[in-house]
Design goal:
The chain has a 7-stranded mixed β-sheet, sandwiched between helices. The chain has helices at 16-27, 38-58, 71-85, 101-112, 130-136, 159-169, 190-193, 242-253, 258-277, 304-313, 331-335, 340-343, 357-373; strands at residues 4-5, 65-68, 92-96, 116-120, 141-145, 174-178, 197-201, 212-216, 283-284, 294-298, 316-317, 346-350. The longest helix has 21 residues, at 38-58. By secondary structure, it is an alpha/beta fold.
Length: 377
Amino acid sequence: MEYVYLDNAATTSVYPLAAKKAMEMMTVYYGNPSSLHTLGIQAEQQLNIAREQVAGLIGCRSDALVFTSGGTEANNLAILGSIEARSRAGRHVITSAVEHSSVSACCTELEHRGYEVTRLVPGQDGIISAEQVADACRSDTVVVSIMAINNENGAHFPIDRIVPAVRRSAPNALIHCDAVQAVGKLPISVKKLDVDLLTASSHKLHGPKGCGVLYIKRGVRVLPRVFGGNHERGLRAGTEASPLIAAFGAAAASVPHFDRQRKLYDSLKKRLADGVKALNDVRWLSPEKSVSYIVSISVPGIKSETMLHFLAQHGVYVSSGSACSKGKQSPVLKALKLPEWVIDSALRISFTHTNTINDVDRFLEVLEQGILTLARS
């Protein structure tokens, strides 16, 4: 049975070129990048190429990057590592109430350590505004961590306006951006954004799982979270996962033109929106100011898990929210104060550049079948 995959915010298929690169690293350039012999030097050269490729995707110098095991570790290193490096700078942290769990859990850990965390709730438009962040800033604010794109409803936060607002209101605070759902889909320039720290993940842009990256602005001090070696500028001990990093680089170099992606996602979202309007009792949850490649809807009365199983039985794959929640009620939708019956029936549809109008039509077809077939609670 042919299937339709619309869960690309959870993970993406690996580009053939990236998979080929990983295999090459495991069979040809398999030396330890820290070894001084020829095979080690060749492996290190391949990692340098990958570092340049990823740096080119976000507009920074290659020596500003630290490779990690994924977005979660990168977020932990960014927040906890920078906090520890500036322990005397302040005890106040600003974030949003709708961050990925790897950020929100870091902030909870900081609260256990005696830090005060301000969690900003998006307004009625679904957005964290620059004014909100600026108003929350204090003289003892040490870190501000706001995501670029929400991973559950696609809300697009104005990082380009938030950063200068923070610079004016809390000039000593470091600014971190979880850009996992933006890099590879939207043009990102860390220089233009002027963030201090930015996170990206390989498997969200058709690279392999198990590899992420943290951008660290020159002059920003971060302390390591893993010890045991001088790898990755001393910030991430352990032999580098050469196959994953090289494949990440290959995927970064293969990202399609952003204008072409935007036009495709806009057309897919419009087709989806038109189809949803034609169905009875389906609620659109994504805010107006959201990207076109992540959409949240709700089918009131039909539990998310029930509908997901029905869709999967017909070869259509979406999710109920963040894959990290593993079926638990969405903390993002709860933070937005949506009714329980809406949260319990939420579905997330997320596109990549390989999706087509036919994929959307098939989803709508099976969704309608589910609405007509499944019993409502």
